[in-house]
Design goal:
83 residues, 4-stranded mixed β-sheet, 30% strand
Length: 83
C-alpha cells in the first residue's frame, strides 16, 4: 500500500461527514462508493463515535476492505479500498 508523507494511504476520493450522526455517515458513504471503481480508496472523516462500529460492518457487508482506521481528538478517519 502506498502512503503519503504523513503515513496515510493515497486515496482517490474523500467524504467529510463531520457533525453528522447515524445513519447519515453510512448513507453518504453508500452513495459515494457508487460513483467509484473497485480498487479505489475512499477517505472518510467522521465525528460520530458510532462510526467505529458502523464503518467496519459496512465494509464487511459490501465486500470492501477497511485498510486503516484512526481516531484523534474525537475525529475518526477511515480508509476504505472498494471491493
Amino acid at each position: 500500500m502506498t502512503t503519503t508523507a504523513d503515513s496515510q494511504p493515497i486515496y482517490q476520493d474523500e467524504l467529510d461527514t463531520t457533525g453528522l450522526y447515524c445513519p447519515e455517515p453510512i448513507m453518504l458513504m453508500h452513495n459515494k462508493v457508487r460513483d467509484m471503481s473497485p480498487g479505489e480508496i475512499l477517505k472518510v472523516i467522521a465525528t460520530d463515535p458510532a462510526t467505529t462500529r458502523d464503518v467496519p460492518k459496512f465494509c464487511s457487508f459490501l465486500g470492501h476492505d477497511l485498510i486503516s482506521q484512526q481516531e484523534s481528538d474525537g475525529r475518526y478517519l477511515y480508509f476504505i479500498r472498494l471491493g
